[in-house]
Automatic annotation (TrEMBL):
Any GO molecular function: lyase activity
Name of this chain's protein: Phosphomevalonate dehydratase small subunit-like domain-containing protein
SUPFAM superfamilies in the cross-refs: LeuD/IlvD-like
Organism (species): Thermocladium modestius
Domain Phosphomevalonate dehydratase small subunit-like: 25-101
């Protein structure tokens, strides 16, 4: 399945395994920038080297600095895909150099953790599962 969104930052094509957050996250409260993990209920998910998918973020103006910390410690996601990107995620992605695609349909949240995702940043397209469904 191919989904269309809008690339805010980044160029080229990125492929990787998905980490999906079905509820909004706070980069300040839910993400550990040193360890590259995000809280998901009572467990943690590693986001380093993965494609992070979320509906949108919530929270603090410190969020962009946490995104920068992810890069500094080598634990940044390959890209962030969102249904709706707020100003803080936009700033954080550009500041940290993390590719960002937003304005994706809600169906992107139906991706499974570990599913292969191909992100065409030049075209604003996201291909799921390596094939059309």
């Amino acid at each position: 399945m191919t989904l269309r969104g809008r690339t805010i930052y980044g160029k080229g094509v990125i492929a990787g395994k998905a980490v999906v957050m079905r509820t909004p996250i706070s980069f300040l409260g839910d993400v550990d920038g040193r360890r590259g993990t995000v809280k998901a209920g009572y467990e943690e998910k590693s986001i380093g080297g993965r494609v992070l998918i979320l509906p949108f973020s919530r929270g603090s103006t410190v969020g962009p600095y946490i995104m920068y910390q992810l890069v500094k410690y080598g634990n940044a996601p390959l890209a962030i895909l969102s249904v709706k990107a707020d100003t803080l995620v936009l700033i954080g992605a550009v500041m940290a150099g993390i590719p960002l695609v937003t304005d994706l349909p809600d169906s992107v949240l139906g991706v499974s953790d570990g599913e292969e995702v191909v992100v065409d940043l030049d075209g604003g397209e996201v291909r799921l599962g390596g094939q059309d469904r």
